[in-house]
């Protein structure tokens, strides 16, 4: 399965992506480090966790996808691997929700890659998978990532104190969300209309550059 909009493609992550994924990730170490999940120190009664290898990560993502709990994608831009997007924590029953996490190559930031990728994923979740609600949780300090959800019209719902272990400590996160009823026309269509309006108005009023 692939989700496509122009130069931007979301497709399942593969073991053979290892070389390209490592190259992009290594080149973006300083860009990504402040926002990446880390493993907290072990507790007296908890297991000792280690950062997975690429192969372990892909196998885990595939296992979760097969169980219906996750949708793991890589992002391609103009035919090259440019980032990663994962719909995780998928819950069914009376909730029908999931949350999205993402990162993008700094070299393509500001070109609309990330908002387009998120819009593609949200439309797929609402229209094909059957989810009702999507969340994105972002550190308040992460301006580029916040601009992604603001451009797409996600609602800010509040603060989750010390929500995730990021860059070596427990960090606060802002919660942004959308439900299917809020985008009956599709999030990608809304994003395209928003970009077109900004372009007609001129460069002075365009969205600030972000992911």
TrEMBL record:
Residues 8-181 form the N-acetyltransferase domain. Keywords: Acyltransferase, Transferase. Gene3D superfamilies: 3.40.630.30. Pfam families: Acetyltransf_3. The keyword Transferase applies. InterPro entries: Acyl_CoA_acyltransferase, GNAT_dom, N-acetyltransferase. The keyword Ribonucleoprotein does not apply. PANTHER family: [RIBOSOMAL PROTEIN US5]-ALANINE N-ACETYLTRANSFERASE, GNAT FAMILY, PUTATIVE (AFU_ORTHOLOGUE AFUA_3G00765)-RELATED-RELATED. Belongs to the acetyltransferase family. RimJ subfamily. This is GNAT family protein.
